């Protein structure tokens, strides 16, 4: 551990490195065990330095994003965990917006509003980072990232910089070649359309009202837990299974929106996983439908 720390300190500032760090400090569910190292790089070069170091020394490396659509198991994560939230610059280039991977997609949506550019209104309530949004082709209220994304700068699995076009990212429902190929997102470019500030704001206000009135934002959660099964809505299946309010440990199926599992008091990742399994088994038994998690589950038991 000390050797790795010293090595890392030679390629990234020491104040960007934490050891034996609780990952519950970084996940929206407020759950998750410790990581050997948590690293918060501030530049693309630092990301590349750390990534190539991990390859050269055969040390596992995990990208955490901002921890919004994620469950880290109670055993934590071995090796290096990269958190890119320090890389959060957003800037305007003609009618395009470039955003670093650690920027919140909510902030990018707000930046588009200030620039009177339309196309990202749907994202005004998505809690994820830009990197996570590309990884999963995030969407809400009828819009998806692939509607407006033009290209992305990534690190490939050799630690080299690579620019991907929208087509090369193969964006589909909660899928992308970024996830399939294990790329690390550094920056995204969005092509937007000039619009009317007041009309854009009105749409975003409407979507914000819908989100706040229907989603359990008063509790920690990982967002929508399950993908939408063809022909159904996951939340309605869970509700119709009589599971709304079902609780295991500190994890509860939200009484406000059955598609969410909330942390109502000192939940562990194991509570979440046990409740997810119970929901899947119950819905399968009652309706014959397989619920596939949308939330990403990582780490050791």
Automatic annotation (TrEMBL):
Involved pathway(s): Cell wall biogenesis; peptidoglycan biosynthesis
Domain FAD-binding PCMH-type: residue ranges: 31-195
Compartment(s): Cytoplasm
EC class: oxidoreductase
Top-level taxon in the UniProt lineage: Bacteria
PANTHER family: UDP-N-ACETYLENOLPYRUVOYLGLUCOSAMINE REDUCTASE
Family: Belongs to the MurB family.
Protein known as: UDP-N-acetylenolpyruvoylglucosamine reductase
Taxonomic path: Bacteria, Bacillati, Bacillota, Bacilli, Bacillales
Gene: murB_2
